[in-house]
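Bench log, entry 3. Co-assembly request; chain sequences pasted below exactly as received.
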Amino acid sequence: MTIPEIPQIVLQIANDIKVMKIRGAGKIARSAAEALKQASINYKGPHELAVFKKYMGRVADILISTRPTAVSLPNAVIYVISGLLNAGSYKDAHEIVAERAERFIKQSLEAVDKASKIGAKRIRENSVVLTHCHSTAAVKTIIEAYKLGKVVKAYSTETRPFYQGRITSTQLLENNVPVIQIPDSAIRYVMHEVDHVVIGADTVTAIGEVVNKIGTSQVAAVAKEHGVPVQVIAESYKFSPMTLMGDPVVIEFRDPREIVPEEWLNKHPGIEVLNPSFDITPPRYIDAIVTENGVIPPYAAILVLKEMWGWVLEEMRRTGLGYLRFEEIL
Amino acid sequence: MSQELIKHGFAKRLSASELVLNIMDKIVNTSINDSVVLSKTIIEIYEELMRERPFSAAALNLLKIVVSHVLEKGFDEVKSLVLNLREEYLGALTKSIETASKRFENGDTLMVNTNCMSIRRLLGLLKSRGLKINVYVAESRPGLEGLSLAEYVESLGLKVFLIVDSAMRFFMKNVDKVVIGAEAVLPDGSIVGKVGTSVLAFIAKEFNKEVISITPTHKFYYELMERERPKIPEKGWEVLMTSDIRSTLPPSYSALVPVYDITPPHYIDYLATEHGLISPYMVQIYMKDQYVRFAKTPLLRDLVTEVKKRYST
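Structure output for the full assembly:
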C-alpha cells in the first residue's frame, strides 16, 4: 500500500517541535494534536479507510519521533489516534481525527487552568515561592496564588543553558508578582527563605518520578534538605504509560553549542561539553503532584495512568513493547 | 574572550590565592619608602577587600600582619616582610596540595565548580604523577569561571567534561570525589566558597561522595572568633548578561546574585592544610594555635583606622 504524501504544514510542526521552536510539554502536545488535525484536513489520498489509517499512523510515528523524552507528545497522539481504532468508514475516521484533536487541545488548556487553581490553594499565606525553568502550569499556579494574596515573593532560576527563567520572570512580572531571578547556583543561598517550591513536569513515570528540566532534581533535593515542600503541577497527559513496562525515560543530550559558542568549542577539542536537557527527581523529594483531577502523592502515579490510558497499558502488555507503532496498530 | 561569551556574563575573577599574591605584589611594587603612598595603598587594598571580597581570609590575615608591623615598626622592612609572607603562603599552599594529592587514585573522577589555584595545582600534580583523572567542571555562574578551569584541565591532557551548574546532580553518580574551593574557613568549620559550592557539596553528600577542600590555615578566618560575620556581597543582573540583553527584559526585572555561599561542616569530609588533613570540626585547634598571630585584638579594621590617622595627610 502506498501511503499518501505528508503535507508540508505537518512536517513544519514536527520540525518546530524538534528544534525547540515549540517547547514546553503542554505546547508540544497541543501542537502535535494540531498537526494530526492538519494531516487529516490536508489528506490528498484515496478516500479509503485502510489507506487513511496507515497515513495517520505514519504521521503519528513521525510526530512521536521528534522529541524522544516529551511524553505529552505520544500521549496527545494516542488520545487523538485511539479514536481511529473503532472508525467504521473513511468519512467517520476523517471527522474523528479533527474532533478528537480539538477536544484534546481544549481539555489540555483547561487542565492547566484546573491544576493551577488546585495547586494555588495548597500554598499558604505570605509565602515565598521558588520555581525552576519555565512551566506554564507552575507560572499559572504562582499567579493564582498571588491573586489569592498568598505569595509575597517569587524566586525564579535563570535555567541554563536556555535561560527559560527569563520567560518565567517576565510572565510573573506581567501579572504583578514580585519576582527575583537567581542564577541556578544560588538555590541553596535563598532556600532558607522559601516556603514552597512549585515546578512543572515534562513527564511523570509510573512510580512517581518527575522528569523535568535539568536542575529540577537539584532544586528538589535542596528543598527537601530545608524541609520546604515541593509541589509538581502536571496535567495528566504528562504521565507516561511506557514507564510502567520498565522502559526508562530517555534523557536527551542536546547540542553543546547551547552552552558555549561554537568558536570556543572548536578551540577546545579536548573539552567534552555535556548538555542533558532533563533530569529525574525521585518521588521521595516530591510532596504532591497536582493534576487537573486533584492532588496525589507521587507514589500514586499509577492510578492516574490506569484511569487515563487503560487501553494503552493493555496494548503494551499484549505486545510487550514500551511504545506503540501506530503504522502497525492501525 | 569572544563577544558571545561576554553576553553570558563571562568575567575573569581572581581566586583566593591569586588575590593574596596580587595584593602582596601590589604592596611590594608601591614606593616602599614613601609612607604616605604606602599607607594609602594599604588602606585602599583593605577597603576594596571589605567591599568586594570581605571573606578573603588569607588576604586579610596577611594584611593584618603587614598593618601591625607598620604600626609597631614603621615602614622599614615592609618589603622583606611581604616577600616572606608571600613565600610562606605559597609554601603552605604547596604542602596542603601535596597532602591532599595522596588521597587520589588512578582513575578517579572529580567534580569541581571553581577555577581556584589550589585545584589547578592539585590537578597538575596528579597529572605529573601519571594518574589518569577525569574531571567534571561546572560552568559556575556568575562569571563562568568553569570555562577557564576546563581550558586548563584540557591543557594538562586530562579528560574533562563541562556541564551547566544545574547538571551537577545528574552526573554525580559518575563521580568519586568532589573538591571545593574556599575563600574562607569559618570558626565553626564551614567554608565560604563561590556561590553554588554548597549545592555541589550537599549533592555530593546525598550521593555519599567524598568532599574535600584545600585550605592552608591562612584561609581560616580568625577574626570571626570575635567579631560579626561580614555580609555576603550580592550583585544584580549586570553580572549575568549585557545591557543589550537586559533591555529585552521588562524594566522591573531584577536579579539577585550572591557572590558566595556557605557550606556547613557536615558536608565536608576534611580540609587539607599545611599541617595535614583535619576534620572541619577541628578548625578550632588551629584557630587557637594561630590566635595570637592573626586574631588577637585590635581588629584589622581598627588597625587600618589607626594607619589612616597616623599617615594620611
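The first strand of chain A starts at residue 127 and ends at 131. The interface with chain B takes residues 155, 157-161, 166, 169-170, 173-174, 180-190, 213-215, 217-218, 221-222, 225, 251, 259-261, 263-264, 268, 270-276, 279 of chain A (CB under 8 Å).
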